[in-house]
Amino acid sequence: MKQDVYTRVTDTILAVLEAGTRPWMQPWNAAHAAGPVSRPLRHNGKPYSGINTLMLWTTAMEKGYTAPIWMTYKQAQELGAQVKKGEHGSLVVYANTLTRTETNEKTGQDEEIEIPYMKGYTVFNVEQIDGLPAHYYAKSEPPHLSEAERLARLDAFFAATKADIRHGGDRAFYAPQPDFIQMPPFEAFRDPESYYATLAHEQTHWTCHPSRLDRDMGRKKWGDAGYAMEELVAEIGSAFLCAELGLTPEIRDDHAAYIASWLKVLKDDKKAIFTAASHAQKAADFLLNLQPAPAPDPEPDAEGDDTPTVPEAPPEPEPARASEPEPLPAAGEDAPVSSPPVPDGPPPGGPRQLSFF
């Protein structure tokens, strides 16, 4: 019997956790011009999100891919390319709703009922494909920020959230009732990256406050299922944030005991990892959207080159099949959309993208 998408995804994450690896806790290198492998991108440059990010991270780690770009078999063909013989694709998902007319038992009136569903589809990393345009394979240039500039930007990022961050003691935690983040002194960490990665974790917890995302995972006491779910959200959310900030997520000794709790939660509920990834993505997006808007590009010099630039027309979007409605993305999931190839600049829309590389 064919497994449903929820089971297939959950079983994949469970296998990684049971092997002693957290799929969101790996060092990442910006080895590609489009960005680091920790920010999976569609073929048009739009980032994946939520559970799809976790799934593609898992595959990238297993296969050793350094390119962050993924596409369907058909999208590769549309670009004049071909998936290499013997290559196997990776599962990602999209959510949509079906509309059905039903009679309301109380009123006797016909009503349209929306029924949510989730389907999987297959994508390939560009390293599995031959014949793509050269920019899909382009390696990255050396980082253009000095260490001092990079640390200054990280300081500015967390300062922009206006969270109450206090320093002292030997523990890092978020206190919900007084609503503050406690961090050990900066000097107590082995390096600056460890400090900021730990702060990213606590800052993700900070988003649960009722005045922000009002996230309640059902925690009643320390160590229960609700507590484990909130920690899973913070782990994944901080990993999403670290991917944006160019940081390696911090593996904390005091969190090792959570793995057993996460395994139990995921085994008891095949949708739990989808819920956690969705909340984690919302937390990361919330923090990214607290950042100030970047300065606009300067106006072109009126006395400069006045040769008009004709933009290249994008290819026609892939039409939806008549028997299947065009899927729409749900919170934490992504829809497969055929659209223009990877542009030179950041993808339009979505949370604000920052450059920390």
Question: Care to describe what's here?
Answer:
- With 357 residues, this protein is of the alpha+beta class.
- The strands form 3 sheets. Strands 1-4-3 form a 3-stranded antiparallel beta sheet. A 3-stranded mixed beta sheet has the order 6-8-7, with helices on one face. Strands 2-5 form a two-stranded antiparallel ribbon.
- A hairpin with a 4-residue loop joins strand 7 and strand 8 (180-183).
- It has helices at residues 5-18, 50-63, 73-78, 147-160, 192-206, 225-245, 258-268, 272-288, and strands at residues 70-71, 82-83, 90-103, 110-125, 129-130, 165-167, 173-175, 180-183.
- The chain has one domain.
Short description:
With about 350 residues, the protein is an alpha+beta fold. It has helices at about 5-20, 50-65, 75-80, 145-160, 190-205, 225-245, 260-270, 270-290; strands at about 70, 80-85, 90-105, 110-125, 130, 165, 175, 180-185.
Question: How do the helices and strands line up, and which of them pair or pack?
Answer:
Elements: H1 5-18, H2 50-63, E1 70-71, H3 73-78, E2 82-83, E3 90-103, E4 110-125, E5 129-130, H4 147-160, E6 165-167, E7 173-175, E8 180-183, H5 192-206, H6 225-245, H7 258-268, H8 272-288
Parallel strand pairs: 6-8
Antiparallel strand pairs: 1-4, 2-5, 3-4, 7-8
Helix pairs in contact: 1-7, 5-6, 6-7, 6-8
